[in-house]
Every structure is written in C-alpha cells, then in structure tokens.
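pinning this so it doesn't scroll away 📌
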Amino acid sequence: MFGTDEGWPSRLLPTPKQWLVMVLVFVALVAAAIAAKATSGVLRPTNASVEALLKVRLPKTQVSKVNCSVVDGLCEVTAGSNLFYVDRTGRYLVIGRVYDMETRQDLTATRLLEINPDTLVGGAAKANAAPDRGDAPLTSGDRPSTPATPKHLSLEGLPKDGAIVWGNPNGKTVTVFSDFECGYCKALSTALVSLNVRVVERPISALGTRDLSNRVYCAKDRVKALHRAYAREPLGTSATCDTSGLDANERFAKAHGLQGTPVLVRGDGAVMEGFRSAELTAAFIAGGRS
C-alpha cells in the first residue's frame, strides 16, 4: 500500500530539502550554544588562565597578580614593582600607560602609586618598565634612545612667566615640572602641602593636556584652580591669557630630556624624578639651599 525504505513508509522519510533545513537548524542551535557559553564567560580567559600562559611565555618574570577586569580587552599584570599589560590570549604584551579619556585619569600611574607608594617611580619610565630582563621583548639596543633626565639642572633660562607659585612663601623653594592629569603629580602636590614649602609649579602637559594647563594658568586664582584640577573638580568659567610662559616650560623640558612627570628641582639644582613619600621628599628638599 505504501512505498517503503527498509520497512519505513516513504511518505514518513524527510525529503532532501527537509534534510537540509534540519541540518541548518542543528548548526544554528550549536552556534547559539557556543555563543551563550562565550557570553557567560565559560570560554573567556580567566585571570588564572592568563597567568598560566605568562608562566610559559615569560618564565623569568615573577608575576604577582593578573587582573583582566580593569580595561576591556586587556589584562593588567603586576610583577613585583612593575606593571604591564597583555591581551586576553596572553600573546601580545603592551608596555606603556593606559589613560581613561572619559574620566581623564592615568590608570597606570594610579596603579603604580598603589604598588610603590614610597619608591621613586621615575614618571613614565617606571610605567613603561618591561618584564624581567630575561623576558624583555626588546633589548637595550632595540629601544629608542631618549636623553636621560639630568641629575642637576639650571633654571636660569626659564622666564618668570609660566610658573604658578603656591605654598609657604617663607619655606624652602622647590620647582616642580608637572601635569595636572598625572596621578603622581597629584600625590606629590598633597605631600608638598604637608611639608609647608614654597612650590614653583611649571606645567608641561606631558600627557597631552595643554588645554587644561591653559585653563589653570589663565584662571583668576591660579593656585585654587591648580588644586581643583588635581582634585578633578570643575574649574568654572574659562578665560584666555598669554600662555607663552607655558610654551617656554615645554621647550625647556624637551631640551633637557624631562620625559615624565613629576620632576622636582631644588634650590641648588639637584633633580629628583618621580614620586616619593612625603618623608623622602622632605629629605630631598632639605638637602639644598632655600
């Protein structure tokens, strides 16, 4: 009565077209399941899996911590007092700063300050520290040459303009080359307030924040604007003024190899690059003349 194939009625067997539809539906269901697992994090690399990859690829670097939740697409790697980044596959290594343009915060500087609160970090130099030398992707010969920050510096070539003077007018004087978006500069500013010294602050916009420097320098109350800038508080109505002094600061910094911020210069010309604790900063300032 019915046509059969191995005992089954032929009208119950799927046609070739129906077979194709069923196969496509099955493939779609499998793809959806894989996507769901990836979304749920089952297939996404974890901190532990990235750390395991780094132990294989950077065997001489003692990794202290891996955090893949700080920056989307990157994992923050702490190795002792150093900090660098890798992608989530653990294949690509990134040495440098991560800057949040929305919150206007140097995430690398803030994190390094947490790791090394009492250690000279040397501005950008420490943030760019490579993994242990045995694993460094670039040898010293491969790295671009940059002039070293001098140990002593004469400020005689700088004009009076371009400086924001604050603090105790009768205290010891220290000149600071800074950037208002630099986390270390903010920490140093707080330390200098507690030291009751006279600060001659010269913004150099090392992080490409010249617009903010202009607004602080042109404010009616520059000192108040300076501290508000470090606190990430609104500066109020912006004004315009002669900012050629800031230009002079930046030319001076470039000419003398000041690569990062902050850089402190005391009365006798001695230079300290980076951030130290209030105690060590006080000892440095005390070593020179007023």
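📌 and the second one:
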Amino acid sequence: MDLQEVINRYEMASFTVTKRIQSLIKEQLQDILTIEQHCILRTIKLLGRATTTELAEMFLVNKSAITAIIARLTEKGYIKRFRDRKDRRIVYLMLTEEGNNVFEWANKKVFEIVSTYLKQFDQKEIEAFIHTFETFAQLLHEEKEEKLEE
C-alpha cells in the first residue's frame, strides 16, 4: 500500500469518525453544552485550574476564541475566575460545583456514546489504536513546539 492510499484512508476514516461522534455527542449534550465547552471543562477539571492563555495554546486557537467560550461558561455559572495572589495580572479558571456537576453529567453521556463503539474491539486493538493515536498527537505537538521556537 502506498503512502497516498494510507493518507486517503486516514482522511476518510478520520472525517467519518469525527463528524459522526461529534454529531452524537452534540445530540446528547443538547442545549446544555457545546462540544468545545465540554472540552474546556474537561481540561480545567484535569488541570485543576488554567489560564485562558494555557487553554488557547492547548487547543491551538486564538485567545479571543477561548475568552468567548469562557465568558459563556462563566455566565452559566460553570467556571469561576480568581487572581493569582502573587501576580494579580494572572487570572485562573476553575470549575464551580455546578460546573463540575455538568461536566460529570456530560462526561457520562460521552462515555455512553464512545463505549458503545469501543466495546466492538478487544483490549489489544483498543490499546494499539489509542497508542497510535497518542503518538500521532505527540508528533503534531512536537512539530508545533519546534515552530514556536523558530
């Protein structure tokens, strides 16, 4: 199999999986959260706290895009802002109790959707898939870091 054929297969599979899973997730999260909002809540939950700059870098978007999402999440009462005690210019974001509850609800919905499909594979296939996907993500991350250093 030549590289162009691999790339074509990757593009088709990636497009199909991404679009279908996002559609299913969007349907389940209804008007409560967008997929982007859920990803932001997940990241803040994992980190414990984050700045808009950190989130923008992680999601490879402009800070203004993150700021708009954060504003909506703050309005809904899912995120609170607080300033660093030593450097008042730094504003951290944390989940509120309500934000944590909504995240857990959404996370359960995502789990139900994705697990339905992953159950079709054995453990070795899942591990190989995730390992390959994580390696691909790491390569992309490293390339981005190299470009920033130039």
